[in-house]
Amino acid sequence: MTQPSRFLQLDVFPARPGGGNPLGVVLDAHDWSDARMQRFATWTDLVETTFVLPPSVPAASYRLRIFTPQREIPFAGHPTIGSAHAVLDCGIAMPRAGMLVQECAAGLLPIRVDDGSPRELYVRAPPARVVREGSAELASILRGIALGALQPAFVEGGRRWWVAEFASEAALRGWHPDHAAIAALAHATDSLGLCIFARCQLRDYDLAVRAFPAGVGIVEDPASGAANGLIAALIAQREPAGELARGYRVSQGREIGRDAALLVRIEQGEVWVGGATDTVVSGELRWVDG
Q1: Which pLDDT tens digit goes with each residue over 153-173?
Q2: Omega of the bond leading into 118 within 30 degrees of 0 (cis)
Q3: Quick check: do 5-125+276-285 and 129-272 share a fold?
Protein backbone atom coordinates (compact mmCIF):
# COMPACT_ATOMS: atom_id res chain seq x y z
CA MET A 1 0.00 0.00 0.00
CA THR A 2 1.20 3.51 -0.80
CA GLN A 3 2.54 5.31 2.26
CA PRO A 4 0.29 8.20 3.30
CA SER A 5 1.42 11.77 2.78
CA ARG A 6 0.69 14.72 5.01
CA PHE A 7 -1.98 17.03 3.66
CA LEU A 8 -3.07 20.52 4.70
CA GLN A 9 -5.90 22.67 3.47
CA LEU A 10 -5.27 26.33 4.12
CA ASP A 11 -7.09 29.64 4.06
CA VAL A 12 -4.62 32.11 2.53
CA PHE A 13 -4.92 35.88 3.06
CA PRO A 14 -8.15 35.81 5.12
CA ALA A 15 -9.44 39.09 6.57
CA ARG A 16 -11.96 36.92 8.44
CA PRO A 17 -12.19 33.12 8.89
CA GLY A 18 -12.96 31.56 5.53
CA GLY A 19 -12.44 34.83 3.72
CA GLY A 20 -9.22 33.96 1.92
CA ASN A 21 -8.20 31.74 -0.97
CA PRO A 22 -8.26 27.95 -0.32
CA LEU A 23 -5.10 25.96 -0.98
CA GLY A 24 -4.26 22.27 -0.75
CA VAL A 25 -0.67 21.35 0.18
CA VAL A 26 0.75 17.84 -0.16
CA LEU A 27 3.88 17.28 1.88
CA ASP A 28 6.24 14.30 1.47
CA ALA A 29 5.58 14.39 -2.29
CA HIS A 30 9.07 13.33 -3.42
CA ASP A 31 7.83 10.05 -4.94
CA TRP A 32 4.78 11.47 -6.72
CA SER A 33 4.79 11.38 -10.54
CA ASP A 34 3.69 14.35 -12.64
CA ALA A 35 0.52 12.52 -13.67
CA ARG A 36 -0.31 11.62 -10.08
CA MET A 37 0.06 15.24 -8.99
CA GLN A 38 -2.21 16.41 -11.78
CA ARG A 39 -4.86 13.79 -11.05
CA PHE A 40 -4.95 14.75 -7.38
CA ALA A 41 -5.10 18.48 -8.16
CA THR A 42 -7.98 17.83 -10.54
CA TRP A 43 -9.77 15.83 -7.84
CA THR A 44 -9.40 18.49 -5.13
CA ASP A 45 -10.86 21.05 -7.57
CA LEU A 46 -9.17 23.84 -5.61
CA VAL A 47 -7.84 26.87 -7.42
CA GLU A 48 -4.36 25.46 -6.80
CA THR A 49 -2.84 22.44 -5.08
CA THR A 50 0.89 22.39 -4.31
CA PHE A 51 3.42 19.64 -3.74
CA VAL A 52 6.42 20.17 -1.48
CA LEU A 53 9.65 18.45 -2.52
CA PRO A 54 13.27 18.43 -1.35
CA PRO A 55 15.29 21.27 -2.88
CA SER A 56 17.60 20.51 -5.80
CA VAL A 57 20.00 23.38 -5.05
CA PRO A 58 21.70 24.25 -1.73
CA ALA A 59 20.37 27.80 -1.68
CA ALA A 60 16.72 26.68 -1.55
CA SER A 61 14.77 25.81 1.59
CA TYR A 62 12.41 23.52 -0.34
CA ARG A 63 11.06 22.96 -3.86
CA LEU A 64 7.46 23.57 -4.86
CA ARG A 65 5.28 22.49 -7.76
CA ILE A 66 1.95 24.23 -8.32
CA PHE A 67 -1.04 22.70 -10.12
CA THR A 68 -4.46 24.03 -11.06
CA PRO A 69 -7.18 21.45 -11.80
CA GLN A 70 -6.11 21.68 -15.46
CA ARG A 71 -2.32 22.08 -15.55
CA GLU A 72 0.93 22.90 -13.80
CA ILE A 73 1.89 26.57 -13.53
CA PRO A 74 5.31 28.11 -12.77
CA PHE A 75 4.30 30.58 -10.07
CA ALA A 76 1.34 31.95 -8.17
CA GLY A 77 1.24 34.14 -5.12
CA HIS A 78 -1.28 32.56 -2.76
CA PRO A 79 0.13 29.01 -3.28
CA THR A 80 3.60 30.33 -2.53
CA ILE A 81 2.59 32.07 0.70
CA GLY A 82 0.37 29.20 1.83
CA SER A 83 3.01 26.55 1.11
CA ALA A 84 5.64 28.52 3.01
CA HIS A 85 3.24 28.61 5.96
CA ALA A 86 2.85 24.81 5.72
CA VAL A 87 6.60 24.25 5.48
CA LEU A 88 7.18 26.31 8.63
CA ASP A 89 4.35 24.77 10.62
CA CYS A 90 5.44 21.21 9.76
CA GLY A 91 9.12 21.83 10.47
CA ILE A 92 10.29 21.04 6.94
CA ALA A 93 12.48 24.15 6.78
CA MET A 94 13.48 26.98 9.08
CA PRO A 95 14.12 30.56 8.06
CA ARG A 96 17.69 31.82 7.76
CA ALA A 97 18.09 35.45 8.75
CA GLY A 98 14.31 35.75 8.63
CA MET A 99 14.01 34.34 5.11
CA LEU A 100 12.95 31.16 3.31
CA VAL A 101 13.93 30.51 -0.31
CA GLN A 102 11.39 28.71 -2.47
CA GLU A 103 12.60 26.83 -5.53
CA CYS A 104 9.95 26.62 -8.25
CA ALA A 105 9.62 26.82 -12.02
CA ALA A 106 9.85 30.63 -11.78
CA GLY A 107 13.28 30.37 -10.09
CA LEU A 108 14.45 30.94 -6.53
CA LEU A 109 12.01 33.19 -4.70
CA PRO A 110 12.87 34.72 -1.31
CA ILE A 111 10.08 34.71 1.27
CA ARG A 112 10.30 37.04 4.25
CA VAL A 113 9.04 35.67 7.57
CA ASP A 114 7.60 38.27 9.92
CA ASP A 115 6.82 36.48 13.17
CA GLY A 116 3.95 38.11 14.93
CA SER A 117 0.34 37.43 15.77
CA PRO A 118 -0.64 36.49 13.18
CA ARG A 119 2.58 35.59 11.37
CA GLU A 120 2.92 37.33 8.01
CA LEU A 121 4.85 35.99 5.04
CA TYR A 122 5.92 38.02 2.01
CA VAL A 123 7.21 36.72 -1.31
CA ARG A 124 9.38 38.91 -3.52
CA ALA A 125 7.48 39.00 -6.77
CA PRO A 126 9.43 38.18 -9.96
CA PRO A 127 10.65 41.28 -11.81
CA ALA A 128 7.89 42.73 -13.96
CA ARG A 129 7.86 44.59 -17.25
CA VAL A 130 5.16 46.27 -19.29
CA VAL A 131 4.79 44.31 -22.52
CA ARG A 132 2.61 46.99 -24.03
CA GLU A 133 0.40 49.85 -22.94
CA GLY A 134 -2.98 50.97 -24.08
CA SER A 135 -6.52 49.73 -23.95
CA ALA A 136 -7.29 48.81 -27.56
CA GLU A 137 -7.56 45.10 -26.71
CA LEU A 138 -9.67 45.96 -23.66
CA ALA A 139 -11.95 48.50 -25.34
CA SER A 140 -14.96 46.24 -25.72
CA ILE A 141 -14.50 44.54 -22.34
CA LEU A 142 -14.26 47.88 -20.49
CA ARG A 143 -16.88 49.74 -22.56
CA GLY A 144 -18.66 52.33 -20.44
CA ILE A 145 -16.19 52.12 -17.54
CA ALA A 146 -14.51 55.30 -16.29
CA LEU A 147 -10.84 54.45 -15.95
CA GLY A 148 -8.42 55.70 -13.33
CA ALA A 149 -5.12 57.54 -13.46
CA LEU A 150 -2.94 54.73 -14.83
CA GLN A 151 -3.29 53.64 -18.41
CA PRO A 152 -4.25 49.97 -18.88
CA ALA A 153 -1.29 47.74 -19.61
CA PHE A 154 -0.26 44.19 -20.45
CA VAL A 155 2.26 43.25 -17.76
CA GLU A 156 4.55 40.23 -17.41
CA GLY A 157 6.33 39.06 -14.27
CA GLY A 158 6.19 35.36 -13.55
CA ARG A 159 2.67 35.51 -15.00
CA ARG A 160 1.10 37.65 -17.74
CA TRP A 161 -1.94 39.77 -16.89
CA TRP A 162 -3.91 42.61 -18.39
CA VAL A 163 -4.20 45.34 -15.74
CA ALA A 164 -6.70 48.19 -15.64
CA GLU A 165 -7.48 50.85 -13.05
CA PHE A 166 -11.12 51.82 -12.42
CA ALA A 167 -11.88 55.38 -11.38
CA SER A 168 -14.01 54.34 -8.41
CA GLU A 169 -14.31 51.50 -5.93
CA ALA A 170 -18.08 51.40 -6.39
CA ALA A 171 -17.72 50.83 -10.14
CA LEU A 172 -15.19 48.07 -9.55
CA ARG A 173 -17.30 46.26 -6.97
CA GLY A 174 -20.48 46.56 -9.03
CA TRP A 175 -18.98 45.51 -12.37
CA HIS A 176 -20.43 42.47 -14.17
CA PRO A 177 -17.77 41.55 -16.75
CA ASP A 178 -18.14 39.57 -19.94
CA HIS A 179 -16.29 36.46 -18.82
CA ALA A 180 -16.30 34.92 -22.29
CA ALA A 181 -14.59 38.01 -23.69
CA ILE A 182 -11.96 37.92 -20.94
CA ALA A 183 -11.33 34.24 -21.69
CA ALA A 184 -10.94 34.98 -25.40
CA LEU A 185 -8.46 37.78 -24.63
CA ALA A 186 -6.51 35.54 -22.23
CA HIS A 187 -6.16 32.76 -24.80
CA ALA A 188 -5.34 35.15 -27.65
CA THR A 189 -2.55 36.82 -25.66
CA ASP A 190 -1.27 33.77 -23.71
CA SER A 191 -2.15 35.48 -20.43
CA LEU A 192 -4.08 34.64 -17.29
CA GLY A 193 -6.70 37.26 -17.98
CA LEU A 194 -7.65 40.62 -16.52
CA CYS A 195 -7.09 42.14 -13.08
CA ILE A 196 -8.64 45.47 -12.11
CA PHE A 197 -8.08 47.81 -9.19
CA ALA A 198 -9.45 51.00 -7.71
CA ARG A 199 -8.05 53.36 -5.09
CA CYS A 200 -10.00 53.71 -1.85
CA GLN A 201 -10.26 56.40 0.77
CA LEU A 202 -11.29 56.38 4.43
CA ARG A 203 -11.06 52.57 4.54
CA ASP A 204 -8.90 50.01 6.32
CA TYR A 205 -7.47 49.19 2.88
CA ASP A 206 -5.97 51.32 0.12
CA LEU A 207 -6.89 49.35 -3.02
CA ALA A 208 -9.81 47.16 -3.97
CA VAL A 209 -8.81 44.46 -6.47
CA ARG A 210 -10.64 41.91 -8.60
CA ALA A 211 -8.91 39.26 -10.74
CA PHE A 212 -10.40 37.18 -13.56
CA PRO A 213 -7.91 34.41 -14.51
CA ALA A 214 -9.97 32.95 -17.33
CA GLY A 215 -6.79 31.75 -19.01
CA VAL A 216 -6.62 28.90 -16.49
CA GLY A 217 -10.37 28.32 -16.35
CA ILE A 218 -11.14 30.37 -13.22
CA VAL A 219 -14.01 32.85 -13.35
CA GLU A 220 -12.84 35.07 -10.47
CA ASP A 221 -10.02 34.62 -7.96
CA PRO A 222 -10.78 35.52 -4.32
CA ALA A 223 -7.16 36.49 -3.53
CA SER A 224 -4.39 36.67 -6.11
CA GLY A 225 -0.83 37.32 -4.99
CA ALA A 226 0.60 37.26 -8.52
CA ALA A 227 -1.95 39.73 -9.88
CA ASN A 228 -1.35 42.06 -6.95
CA GLY A 229 2.39 41.83 -7.54
CA LEU A 230 1.96 43.06 -11.10
CA ILE A 231 -0.41 45.85 -10.04
CA ALA A 232 2.18 46.96 -7.48
CA ALA A 233 4.98 46.84 -10.06
CA LEU A 234 2.94 49.03 -12.40
CA ILE A 235 2.21 51.53 -9.63
CA ALA A 236 5.86 51.59 -8.55
CA GLN A 237 7.02 52.25 -12.13
CA ARG A 238 4.41 54.86 -13.00
CA GLU A 239 4.12 56.68 -9.64
CA PRO A 240 7.51 56.33 -7.90
CA ALA A 241 6.78 59.32 -5.66
CA GLY A 242 3.08 58.63 -5.15
CA GLU A 243 1.32 57.85 -1.88
CA LEU A 244 1.28 54.12 -2.71
CA ALA A 245 4.92 53.96 -3.76
CA ARG A 246 6.12 52.26 -0.54
CA GLY A 247 3.26 49.83 -0.11
CA TYR A 248 -0.41 49.52 0.72
CA ARG A 249 -3.26 47.25 1.85
CA VAL A 250 -5.58 45.38 -0.52
CA SER A 251 -9.16 44.16 -0.22
CA GLN A 252 -10.19 41.38 -2.60
CA GLY A 253 -12.89 38.74 -2.98
CA ARG A 254 -15.97 40.37 -1.47
CA GLU A 255 -17.83 40.21 -4.78
CA ILE A 256 -17.77 36.40 -4.65
CA GLY A 257 -18.53 36.01 -0.95
CA ARG A 258 -14.96 36.11 0.39
CA ASP A 259 -13.00 38.73 2.29
CA ALA A 260 -9.26 38.66 1.69
CA ALA A 261 -6.59 41.04 2.95
CA LEU A 262 -3.26 41.26 1.15
CA LEU A 263 -0.30 43.43 2.09
CA VAL A 264 2.12 44.96 -0.40
CA ARG A 265 5.57 46.36 0.33
CA ILE A 266 7.63 48.19 -2.27
CA GLU A 267 11.29 48.56 -1.36
CA GLN A 268 13.94 49.94 -3.73
CA GLY A 269 11.93 48.86 -6.76
CA GLU A 270 11.24 45.37 -5.39
CA VAL A 271 7.67 44.27 -4.77
CA TRP A 272 6.82 42.02 -1.83
CA VAL A 273 3.30 40.59 -1.57
CA GLY A 274 2.03 38.79 1.48
CA GLY A 275 -0.25 38.37 4.41
CA ALA A 276 -1.40 35.77 6.89
CA THR A 277 -2.53 32.15 6.45
CA ASP A 278 -4.73 29.90 8.59
CA THR A 279 -4.54 26.09 8.66
CA VAL A 280 -8.07 24.67 8.36
CA VAL A 281 -7.46 20.93 7.75
CA SER A 282 -4.44 18.84 8.71
CA GLY A 283 -4.21 15.10 8.29
CA GLU A 284 -3.09 12.05 6.31
CA LEU A 285 -3.60 11.76 2.58
CA ARG A 286 -4.19 8.28 1.14
CA TRP A 287 -4.28 8.76 -2.62
CA VAL A 288 -4.18 5.48 -4.53
CA ASP A 289 -3.22 5.89 -8.18
CA GLY A 290 -5.37 3.63 -10.28
Answers
A1: 999 998 899 999 999 999 999
A2: yes
A3: yes
Radius of gyration of the chain (CA): 18
C-alpha to C-alpha distance for 254 and 269, rounded to whole angstroms: 30
What residue ranges do the domains of the chain occupy?
Answer: 5-125+276-285, 129-272
Q: pTM surpassing 0.70? A: yes
Report residue 22's pLDDT band, with 50, 70 and 90 as the boundaries: very high
Confidence of residue 72 (pLDDT cuts 50, 70, 90): very high
Burial of 263 (0-12, 13-18, 19+ CB in 10 A): buried
Domain 5-125+276-285 coded CATH 3.40.50.150: no
The domain 129-272 is classified under which CATH number: 3.40.50.1950, 2.40.128.490, 3.60.15.10, 3.10.310.10? 3.10.310.10
Residue of 255, 246, 71, 288 lying closest to 172 (CA atoms): 255
Split at pLDDT 50, 70, 90, the class of 2 is low
